[in-house]
Amino acid sequence: MKYNEISHFSHPQHTLTLDYTETPFKCDGCKEVGIGSHYRCSFCDFDLHTHCAIPSLSIHHPFYTKCSFQFFSRPPGNTPRYCNACEKDVTGFVYHCKSCGFDLHPCCAKLPMVLDDGETNLYLYRKVRAPCHKCGRKGRSWSYRSSCKEYNLHVACVREMLVENWHELYFGYGKGIKKLENRIPSLKNTLQTPHKRRKGK
């Protein structure tokens, strides 16, 4: 087996090879969208995030200091579960805390703490009171927020932006400048409704 190949329990038919793509793909492990580095079987069109291909048996996250998350190949129990980071359904690989009942997609558990659109840095927060500047809604999900507080984006909305505007990342930035996983499209160009601060009454 080559150094960039692995065997994986979810796809025993063939080995998976480390690959890199600038276009979005769907992870066959956690069922969420991915972009950038991943493991792939070209024979079967089978893809895994690197975090899903080589998961840790257990992890801790700075947002949940009292939790210990264990890796599961499918959601535990018989009731529907959702990811506490993005609030989307959990239908595949997941990190689950038995004591608290919290769940995290592997890709959400490994989200970068800082994103960059080329002009503005966005920092990951567990809770942000302001509404998201893409969907306009508030929510319990994690959010990325600029230090100037002019931009707030749910992590799920950031993922949608990557899928909708991957061509800008590919052609706009150029290859090799920054890791694709830490880049997002230009906020000024992709947010349809620019944020305006409310004046105090």
Descriptive overview:
- This is Phorbol-ester/DAG-type domain-containing protein.
- One of its GO terms (molecular function) is metal ion binding.
- InterPro entries: C1-like_sf (IPR046349), DC1 (IPR004146), PKC_DAG/PE (IPR002219).
- This protein has 201 residues and is of the alpha+beta class.
- The protein has two domains: 1-110, no CATH class; 114-190, no CATH class.
- It has five helices and twelve strands.
- It has helices spanning 50-53, 106-109, 155-164, 166-173, 187-190, and strands at 5-6, 16-26, 33-41, 46-49, 58-61, 64-72, 94-96, 103-104, 114-116, 121-125, 143-146, 152-154.
- Strands 1-2-3-4 form a four-stranded antiparallel beta sheet. A four-stranded antiparallel beta sheet has the order 5-6-7-8.
- A hairpin with a 5-residue loop joins strand 11 and strand 12 (152-154).
- The longest helix has 10 residues, at 155-164.
- It is globular and about 50 Å long.
- The model is unreliable at 173-180 and 192-201 (pLDDT under 50).
Topology record:
Elements: E1 5-6, E2 16-26, E3 33-41, E4 46-49, H1 50-53, E5 58-61, E6 64-72, E7 94-96, E8 103-104, H2 106-109, E9 114-116, E10 121-125, E11 143-146, E12 152-154, H3 155-164, H4 166-173, H5 187-190
Antiparallel strand pairs: 1-2, 2-3, 3-4, 5-6, 6-7, 7-8, 9-10, 10-11, 11-12
